[in-house]
Amino acid sequence: MNLRFSVWQAAALLAGTTIGSGILGVPYAIARSGLLPGLGYVFGLGGAMLLLNMLFATVVEETEDVKQLPGYVSHYLGSRLRWLMIVTLLVLGYGALTAYTAGSGAALADIFNVSPVFTRLTFLLAAGICVAIGVKTVSKLELFLVILITLLIGGVGILALSHTSFTFPDVSSDGNTAQALLAPYGVVLFAYLGFSSIPELRMTLRQTPDAIYCAVFTGTILPVVLYTIFVLAVLGLTGSDTTRVATIGLGEALGPTVAIAGNLFAVLAMFTSFLALALVVKNMFELDLHLDSTRSVLLTFLPPILILSLGGDDFISILGVTGAISGGTMGILIVLMFIKIKNLQQKPWPLSTWLLSGGGIFLIGLLLLGMVVELFTTL
Q: How far is CA 143 from the centre of its chain?
């Protein structure tokens, strides 16, 4: 297979995991904080996630067997922290999978004017088939879907240029406080969480393992660029009237055609993240808990169905807490694994390792502070 195409497939898998329902809440959060502070979160957390992804790529590359996050934690940090990682990953995974299903079902129901129950089941069936087929097919589909998402964001940007004078909101008038300025943290962090798919990148690039760093860089930077364009376009169009789910406000501002295109974008964004995240959960059951494929698929898909059947279909309001707490916990464990693996090599650290480790320690402090901040702004 062509190396360049393989790298783009792997980068698309990471980008597809990252670009999910979180992007739809980012403009609203930034509308509360004001444009400049909000873009500071987009760029700052994007840089932090690039560092975190590179650290985890190093852990994955320097470990002989391919595992999922709990397996790596068990190998380097012990069984107790392994169970912490499993619980954290499942909370994040099931919450996000449920949110993606509920959001996509609502968007599809709006497009086709049918029951959300029917569209949710159709969405789950399509995703289940893709996940059951395996990582190669999913990564190829991710590449196709990420290209479509990029084109849709470009289209929204062009429409924004032709419909707006680009007067952006300042800090929310209903709360010119620290709470408004801190509002984007959890939502933006959730929107960047894609590092759990990095083991799948190694599987996609098994014949050219060193290419994983190029794929990680590309797959991390692409969401930063797309989020920036999307935020500027949405806030330029809807300003302080930006809705919690950005595509709804776009439809109200630009008419029914854009409403359909916006809902289509939302479905594509959530479908790509659902595929990659469901694959992570399934592989965790197979590789780390040693379950067979059938039980792994069932344990991946049944909890979201159960949660939805019990009425738990409003997850947008808790995406920030989920991202800050679950993402922060996983990020801290990844930094600790990187430091441990470098210590196990029993040789002097080069300057690059010292710099990466120092950045990782700084990142631990940032993630811990972020957990406190998110709880403060939510409670």
A: 16
Q: How many CB atoms lie within 10 A of CB 340?
A: 13
Other beta carbons within 10 angstroms of residue 43's beta carbon come to 14
**247: pLDDT confidence band, cut at 50, 70 and 90?**
confident
Tally of CB atoms within 10 A around 189 = 28
Q: How many CB atoms lie within 10 A of CB 68?
A: 26
pTM of the model: 0.83
Structural domain boundaries of the chain? 3-378
pLDDT value for 365: 94
Phi-psi region of 21 (alpha: psi -120 to 50; beta: other; left: phi over 0): alpha
Token digits for 333? 């464990």
Rounded Cα distance, 73 and 71, in Å: 5
Structure tokens at 130: 């893709």
pLDDT band at 275 (very low <50, low <70, confident <90, very high): confident
Structure tokens at 373: 């901040």
Nearest CA-CA partner of 222 in 50, 24, 5: 50
| Residue 263 confidence (pLDDT) above 90 | no
Q: What is the CATH number of domain 3-378?
A: 1.20.1740.10
> How many Å apart are CA 299 and CA 289, to the nearest integer?
12
pLDDT band for position 331 (50/70/90)?
very high
Query: How is residue 349 annotated by DSSP?
Result: P
SS3 content of the chain, % helix, strand, coil (to 5): 85, 0, 15
